[in-house]
TrEMBL record:
Cofactor section: Zn(2+)
EC number from the UniProt entry: 1.13.11.29
Gene from which this protein is expressed: ygiD
Domain Extradiol ring-cleavage dioxygenase class III enzyme subunit B residues, every copy: 39-253
Organism, as annotated: Fibrella rubiginis
Keyword field: Dioxygenase, Metal-binding, Oxidoreductase, Zinc
Name of the molecule in the record: 4,5-DOPA dioxygenase extradiol
Signal peptide feature range: none
C-alpha cells in the first residue's frame, strides 16, 4: 500500500468530529516523572480520562530542536533517552507506541508556511514519552513528534501551529511539551523535593503568563521579551517555551482555558500546564 493510500485508509476511520479534540501544553519537568509516582504523573494519568481517546498524538517537544521543521514518519519510533546522570531504571524504559507515516505525510501537506521533512531517524524523546506513557500506558495509540525550527522566532511557530488546526477535527491530540519557566542555571536543587517552591520572580511571571493565556491575549506571550526582566529570567533560552506557541496557535474561539499541575519546582521552574477545550 502506498503512503498516500495508507493515509486515506487511516482517515477513512477518522470522520470529522462534532467536538474538537482538546489541545495541551504540558510542563514535563524532570525525566524522573516518567517512571515515578508523583503528583505530576498522577495528574497526567487522570487527564487521559478527562478527554476523548485520541486517534493519534502529535507532540511538539522542547527536546527536538532542529534547523528546519521535521516530523517523525517511521512505523515504530524508538524511545530516546536524551539525558544523563539518572538511575539505570530510567534508561531501561521503552515506550513502544506505533508511529503513523500516513498522518505524518498529511501533516506536511497541511503546513504551507514551511517545508516539513519526513524524518526516519529521531523517535520519541523524554519530552514526549515521559508524559504519554502515563496517559496511555498500553502504547497502542500512534505517537508522532514535530520538531522546533531553532532558526525561527515565536511568531513563526505560533503561525505554523494554526495550520494544524484541521487535525483537531480528526481526533488528533496535539501537545506542546516544555516548561513556561525554565532556568536550570538558577535552580535550587536542594529544594527539588519541596511541594511548591518558586522564586518571587518565577511565580510573578508565571502568573503573568497565566493571566494572558486566560484572557486570550497572545501578542505579549509571542513577544515575551517585552514583558521585562522576569520573562528573560524565565526564558534564558527559548526551547522549553516555544512549545507553548503551538498550543496557543491552535486555540479556537470556543475553547475554554484551564490549568493543571500549576506549581513551581526548584525555584526557577514551573510545571504549569494548559488545557484548551471547547
Amino acid at each position: 500500500m502506498t503512503t498516500l493510500a495508507a493515509f486515506k485508509t487511516f482517515t477513512d476511520g477518522l470522520p470529522v468530529q462534532d467536538q474538537l479534540m482538546p489541545v495541551l501544553f504540558v510542563g514535563h519537568g524532570s525525566p524522573m516523572n516518567g517512571i515515578e509516582d508523583t503528583e505530576f504523573s498522577r495528574r497526567w494519568t487522570k487527564l487521559a480520562g478527562e478527554i476523548p481517546v485520541p486517534a493519534a498524538v502529535l507532540v511538539v517537544s522542547a527536546h527536538w530542536f532542529t534547523r528546519g521543521t521535521r516530523i517523525t514518519a517511521m512505523d515504530f519510533p524508538k524511545t530516546i533517552h536524551d539525558f544523563g546522570g539518572f538511575p539505570p531504571a530510567l534508561f531501561e524504559v521503552q515506550y513502544p507506541a506505533p508511529g503513523q507515516p500516513a498522518l505524518a505525510l498529511k501533516t506536511t501537506q497541511l503546513i504551507h508556511s514551511a517545508h516539513v521533512e519526513l524524518d526516519h531517524d529521531w523517535g520519541l524523546d523524554h519530552g514526549t514519552w515521559t508524559i504519554v506513557r502515563h496517559m496511555y500506558p498500553t502504547a497502542s495509540i500512534p505517537v508522532l513528534q514535530l520538531s522546533i525550527d531553532y532558526t525561527k522566532g515565536p511568531q513563526y511557530h505560533y503561525d505554523l501551529a494554526r495550520e494544524l488546526y484541521a487535525l483537531r477535527k480528526k481526533g488528533v491530540l496535539i501537545m506542546g511539551s516544555g516548561n513556561m519557566v525554565h532556568n536550570l542555571w538558577m535552580a535550587a536543587w536542594d529544594r527539588l523535593n519541596d511541594t511548591d517552591y518558586g522564586y518571587d520572580w518565577a511565580v510573578t511571571i508565571n502568573n503573568t503568563f497565566k493571566t494572558l493565556i486566560e484572557s486570550g491575549d497572545h501578542k505579549p506571550l509571542i513577544n515575551y521579551s517585552t514583558l521585562g526582566k522576569d520573562a528573560l529570567l524565565a526564558i534564558p533560552t527559548p526551547e522549553h517555551y516555544l512549545p507553548l506557541m503551538y498550543t496557543l496557535g491552535l486555540q479556537g474561539p470556543a475553547d475554554n482555558v484551564s490549568f493543571f499541575n500549576d506549581k513551581a519546582v526548584a525555584g526557577s521552574l514551573t510545571m504549569t500546564s494548559v488545557k484548551l477545550a471547547a
